[in-house]
Write a structure and sequence with these properties.
Length: about 450
């Protein structure tokens, strides 16, 4: 079968045929093989039928305008760039005047993209991208025109899968996916999977969106559905999003997020000193940030782990006194300071459950009286646990279940059909049970 006549196709169909042809073409690239090619689709045929829109994405006619693309460099400004094209200082001033209320042309930051259009070798227009999907047009062809524009973002559904052999990150990037996908996936399964101790053979499947501005990849959209097998247990996540709820749920409507207790006590305790970026330290007698909440509680009051997690520290350490630290997931971590002592079995590396007693209030280290200094970190940044919007763990409301079921029906089969990118058999069993690095 030969395709000789030009076929008029538009848009994505053309792109797909082009890709298909290139693939077929390259697989028959050697001389003796060429004869055997049962599908002699020539690339020339394809080239003839690619219809380019008359105007480019910024509205300039192809073939009439030429352009050059640049990145804003350090210390570059509108003035410096425009002077390079012999635009007079007066005209640059006019641009800045006219841009007022439309765009802030003095906000150029290194790394931003810009384009200069030329007509008959003369610069006629400047396109500046404060964001990949947003741009400002400064056009001086016919008077001065300054406008904001937007490149529509396309969402493309993609799939990925892999078997962990070193880290999630390597598994994802090694297959040519964006490393942002690794972070997204780690966030979805933050409470189910300990990404700091992945094992050979753990594997994942994911259906997600990628965002494109024109042809340019501008980031990951939502993870729609995913599966993660960790230590022999399979976890599934389906993205639910309507006016009432937004989050990831398993096939039974259970939230994948676990909650954290608002405070590490069974009964409420008085706060004696709040979280503050700057407070007067009673012992050091100078202003220091206080990245925690102090609870004045009697010595010996049991202290509870605010969420499931792994103890990463349980020891006496300087001014902190006896300290316990718990890593709850890839982003949340809590610390408990000045303890009188540790609860039995609490030491580095052990698992704790929400509500489990980990130690007792004391005044070890730098402390004027018995109290607990309780600290919370999100991605290693201290946050005010009292004011923080902590993750909610409520399962999906019964009334919303049919909607979740429709989502599950749509993605479950896709997940099942997704082949794992590598073979499980390739895993080296001898290094199993080794903790793996975090994503
Ligand atoms: Zn404190």
């Amino acid at each position: 079968m030969q395709i000789r006549n030009p076929i008029i196709l538009v848009g994505i169909g053309v792109a797909m045929i082009l890709i298909a042809c290139v693939t077929i073409g390259t697989s028959y690239i050697t001389a003796e093989e060429t004869i055997k090619n049962p599908y002699p689709v020539t690339l020339e045929t394809v080239n003839e039928i690619i219809p380019l829109p008359a105007k480019d994405r910024y509205g300039y006619e192809r073939g009439i305008f030429e352009y050059q693309d640049y990145e804003v460099k350090r210390n570059e400004s509108l003035y410096i760039i425009m002077r390079r094209y012999d635009i007079s200082p007066q005209d640059i001033y006019k641009m800045q005047q006219k841009a007022e209320g439309v765009a802030n042309l003095s906000r150029m930051v290194p790394g931003q993209q810009y384009r200069i259009y030329f007509k008959d070798d003369k610069p006629v227009s400047f396109i500046w991208h404060p964001e990949l999907t947003q741009y400002v047009t400064v056009d001086w062809r016919d008077g001065l025109r300054i406008e904001n524009g937007e490149i529509p973002v396309r969402f493309v559904t993609k799939e990925a899968s892999g078997i962990i052999q070193s880290s999630l990150y390597e598994s994802i990037v090694g297959q040519g996916h964006s490393h942002f996908l690794g972070s997204e996936l780690a966030a979805v399964f933050a409470w189910q999977v300990d990404f700091f101790s992945l094992r050979n053979g753990d594997h994942f499947k994911v259906i997600y969106e990628e965002r494109y501005a024109g042809d340019e990849f501008v980031g990951i959209g939502d993870v729609k559905a995913a599966e993660f097998q960790h230590r022999g247990q399979t976890h599934r996540a389906f993205f639910f999003n309507n006016d009432e709820r937004r989050g990831y749920f398993d096939e039974n409507g259970n939230s994948l997020e676990k909650d954290l207790l608002k405070a590490p006590f069974r009964y409420s305790q008085r706060i004696s000193s709040s979280f503050s970026r700057s407070r007067f330290h009673p012992i050091l007698r100078r202003n220091r940030p206080h990245y925690g909440t102090d609870y004045a509680a009697p010595t010996g009051t049991p202290i509870l782990a605010v969420g499931d997690g792994i103890v990463t520290e349980a020891q006496r350490r300087g001014g902190n006194g006896n300290i316990v630290q718990i890593r709850h997931n890839g982003s949340y971590r809590t610390a408990y300071l000045h303890l009188n002592g540790f609860a039995p079995g609490i030491r580095k590396g052990v698992k704790v459950e929400q509500g489990q007693v980990i130690g007792y209030v004391g005044q070890t280290g730098l402390a004027t009286g018995p109290h607990l200094c309780y600290r919370m970190y999100v991605n290693d940044q201290p946050i005010n646990s009292v004011k923080a919007d902590l993750p909610a763990s409520d399962s999906l409301e019964e009334a919303l279940m049919p909607e979740l079921q429709r989502i599950i029906d749509r993605y479950q089969g896709l997940l099942e059909n997704l082949q794992l990118a590598e073979k499980v058999a390739e895993i080296d069993e001898s290094v199993d049970n080794q903790p793996k690095t975090a994503p």
